[in-house]
Design a protein that fits this description.
The protein is mostly helical. The protein has one domain. About 90% of the residues lie in helices and about 0% in strands. The chain contains 4 helices and no strands.
Length: about 100
């Protein structure tokens, strides 16, 4: 696998989680439909599991292919940028829901 492909995987999962989180948060804030909030919290749970699996897979791949290890670190770093964003969104979502 090329370094560009490894970085593309990280960018894909970052943007996928980011966009779905935005849809859930702002969908609820605009429409007040509680289904958006429910799906947002489900996204936190399932998205976290999926991202952990992807990060683990990328790091295992990098440990076996040392020439791609730096690209694997960058890709996992890109995915991990969602952690503070998801914490912020969870806090905002809980505040808006008055929980």
């Amino acid at each position: 696998m090329k370094n560009e492909n490894i970085l593309s995987i990280g960018k894909f999962f970052f943007w996928l989680s980011f966009i779905l989180g935005n849809i859930c948060l702002f969908g609820y804030m605009i429409s007040k439909n509680e289904d958006f909030a429910l799906y947002g919290f489900m996204l936190l749970i399932f998205g976290s599991v999926i991202n952990i699996v992807v990060i683990t897979s990328i790091l295992i791949y990098g440990s076996f292919n040392k020439i791609h290890l730096e690209a694997c670190y960058k890709s996992t770093g890109i995915i991990l940028l969602n952690v503070p964003i998801s914490i912020l969104y969870a806090f905002v979502g809980l505040t808006v829901l008055n929980l």
